Amino acid sequence: xxxxxxxxxxxxxxxxxxxxxxxxxxxxxxxxxxxxxxxxxxxxxxxxxxxxxxxxxxxxxxxxxxxxxxxxxxxxxxxxxxxxxxxxxxxxxxxxxxxxxxxxxxxxxxxxxxxxxxxxxxxxxxxxxxxxxxxxxxxxxxxxxxxxxxxxxxxxxxxxxxxxxxxxxxxxxxxxxxxxxxxxxxxxxxxxxxxxxxxxxxxxxxxxxxxxxxxxxxxxxxxxxxxxxxxxxxxxxxxxxxxxxxxxxxxxxxxxxxxxxxxxxxxxxxxxxxxxxxxxxxxxxxxxxxxxxxxxxxxxxxxxxxxxxxxxxxxxxxxxxxxxxxxxxxxxxxxxxxxxxxxxxxxxxxxxxxxxxxxxxxxxxxxxxxxxxxxxxxxxxxxxxxxxxxxxxxxxxxxxxxxxxxxxxxxxxxxxxxxxxxxxxxxxxxxxxxxxxxxxxxxxxxxxxxxxxxxxxxxxxxxxxxxxxxxxxxxxxxxxxxxxxxxxxxxxxxxxxxxxxxxxxxxxxxxxxxxxxxxxxxxxxxxxxxxxxxxxxxxxxxxxxxxxxxxxxxxxxxxxxxxxxxxxxxxxxxxxxxxxxxxxxxxxxxxxxxxxx
Length: 597
Prior knowledge:
By secondary structure, the protein is an alpha+beta fold.
């Protein structure tokens, strides 16, 4: 809507010859669909550029394009009367000669001569020379702006055959051809192929022309790919039609203005998000805006520049194709970054404001939500990345062909998926399994490979465990799924600990039992869920093993309680009966009678 309003304002001011008007008109030039044509091509800023109105209003077709088929050409029984009322003095014997006649004649503004390379059999016989000229001019502008003709693939033989050169430098002819494609354009979500066809009319020798179907689509293609009407409004006296490096000066000015507009829109987006939305009283708006400002600014700027240059200023040629490809890649990269940042901002907002302390054992629901969001963020980010990468790779014809050939074979596709599943894809699938089956969640206290700590993060391919001494254990997600580990938070935070002490056989177990019960009841860390228990669980030739049990509300409290009771119990055993119960090593000495010598 803003673009339409700007266009209306500029059209009202265009008659005022002031310096301000010059700048406004230069800005308006961004709305002109102009291409940088091939060398020596006629510039479309000429005032005789045809409008986008349909050239052939009513076709009134009474005949078909082709009446019969032969091995080397199409047979036509009717030919448009345009050819009967004009002198045909062009070379249409070969595909290359016929297309050269069209390009060179149109370049020299001789559109009637260029039209002799048309098959007009789908056009009404009462078509005027002016309409024919417009059709030829329209097709020339379309080809110049959007089609790169590979002249090496156009045969110089009347039968359209192409020669293949083998290693022995001998040319081998292929099958004769009666239809050759020289370009392809998209129109309304379908492809329109530009073709040359070999036809024969009555007793005349066969000749090559641009196909009737191609001619029939000229108006529709020109509407989609031709310059806008505003191109005719550029005054000749402004000096903007001069060229620099074969590019019209006004187009260069329009390019810089487009870059300035894109930069301004990007800066404005960042300013609005940081200064206005960033100070919003709603916390979720201010949180999102601070994280989205930079990627949103880049994305809006690149997207605006892409729209301006791709739809309003249309360049052409190999260099322009490369430039537009790089511009689209940059836009897709910025868009992918922006979408991923939206996803991350949402996850961070939920983590910071909608969940409690995940390391607190009672907050099981918070750990579940955060784990599911974390895994979902990784999976969605991976999908977004694949979509962005697919869009980028689709801009290169070699990758298009590669993808088509690979996925055309189910066997090759299966092998690719199988190989990927062994590595990264296997870990991603394991991450989804963890999110569904929940063997471990972010914030859980686990014992893994003899190390215990909290699950700090579950990434794409690995899980990070933060140990009690601030170390990080990084393990692949496939190992988490396939190997056993202890999860101390899975079914509640309560934990039972054992205290093992080796004592002498003569220790008074009952006194130890009574003292331990006293110590346990005095400790505020005991949760009273497990009754005081002291048992002899093992005996050796040197000592007996006493085991005392204690319980606490969470693993950390249980650890502290275990250490506290062990220390006090050892002190008591050392003082009990003057250390009689301490573990000892006994040595027995036996005496023997010696015989007198």
